[in-house]
């Protein structure tokens, strides 16, 4: 299982990442840190010998800045590039403090449509920073000894992408995967494509699968998410009643049931 961060780094980071008393900093190798707090979105800091990259920047620029400060002051390394798994605010609004932002072209398109009315509606004030570089189906990026493969899959949102750290046998899944909590099914989710995306993640053979929300998982968690989405799709098609979800351990074991009810409303309305 993932190792907790070393005591020195844990002390520094835990002082900066506390939300409602929940704290979680996990390192999956000597160079990969997963930063998340309970239901909040996960960020992944990948550090090579000379530089770092960051995948997803959280909802809050101040939290993203803490990550940047940790890399610069504690590790003595600069975050030279940021990747976004998809356009949702809790994965992109920390973009504003970084320079080089890389994402799928649809992520950039969706972020560009977030006007003042949208910002007022969600009650968050930030400066939207668009990706400076985009990819289409796939992209391969190297930063010294760090290699990242970007793969566009869609499903959770049309722009949903994963990032594969082949050397580390880690795949960063964004909200295509959640562990311990219900999935966030939104109005532009495509459930059939989502299932196909999870099948592609399974093919990576990764040892660790970093979800958009929740604890770091494995390919078993990806399988369970695939079964979860498949059952939601059957519900949408009218093949099973809602009560069947309430008897399924794959649903009963997940926290925040309000997400499930909200998701069902989004796809059946």
TrEMBL record:
Metallo-beta-lactamase domain segment(s): 40-213
Alphabetical list of Gene3D superfamilies matching this protein: Ribonuclease Z/Hydroxyacylglutathione hydrolase-like
PANTHER family cross-referenced by the UniProt entry: ACYL-COENZYME A THIOESTERASE MBLAC2, METALLO-BETA-LACTAMASE DOMAIN-CONTAINING
Name by which UniProt lists this protein: Dehydrase-related protein
Organism: Thermotoga neapolitana (strain ATCC 49049 / DSM 4359 / NBRC 107923 / NS-E)
Lineage: Bacteria, Thermotogati, Thermotogota, Thermotogae, Thermotogales
């Amino acid at each position: 299982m993932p190792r907790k961060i070393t005591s020195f780094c844990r002390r520094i980071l835990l002082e900066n990442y506390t939300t409602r008393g929940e704290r979680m900093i996990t390192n999956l190798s000597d160079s990969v840190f997963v930063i998340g707090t309970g239901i909040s979105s996960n960020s992944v800091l990948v550090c090579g010998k000379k530089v770092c990259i960051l995948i997803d920047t959280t909802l809050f620029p101040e939290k993203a800045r803490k990550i940047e400060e940790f890399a610069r002051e504690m590790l003595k390394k600069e975050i030279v590039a940021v990747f976004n798994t998809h356009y949702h605010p809790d994965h992109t609004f920390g973009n504003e403090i970084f320079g080089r932002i890389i994402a799928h072209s649809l992520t950039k398109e969706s972020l560009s449509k977030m006007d003042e009315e949208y910002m007022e509606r969600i009650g968050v004030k930030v400066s939207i920073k668009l990706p400076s570089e985009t990819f289409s189906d796939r992209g391969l990026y190297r930063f010294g000894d760090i290699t990242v493969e970007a793969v566009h899959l869609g499903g959770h949102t049309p722009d949903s992408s994963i990032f594969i750290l082949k050397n580390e046998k880690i795949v960063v899944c964004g909200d295509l995967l959640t562990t311990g909590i219900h999935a966030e099914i939104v109005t532009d989710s495509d459930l059939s494509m989502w299932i196909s995306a999870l099948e592609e993640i399974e093919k990576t053979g990764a040892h660790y699968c970093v979800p958009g929300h929740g604890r770091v998982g494995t390919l078993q968690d990806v399988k369970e998410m695939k079964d979860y989405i498949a059952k939601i799709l059957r519900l949408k098609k009218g093949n099973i009643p809602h009560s069947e979800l309430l008897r399924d351990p794959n649903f009963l074991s997940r926290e925040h049931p309000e997400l499930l009810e909200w998701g069902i409303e989004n796809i059946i309305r």
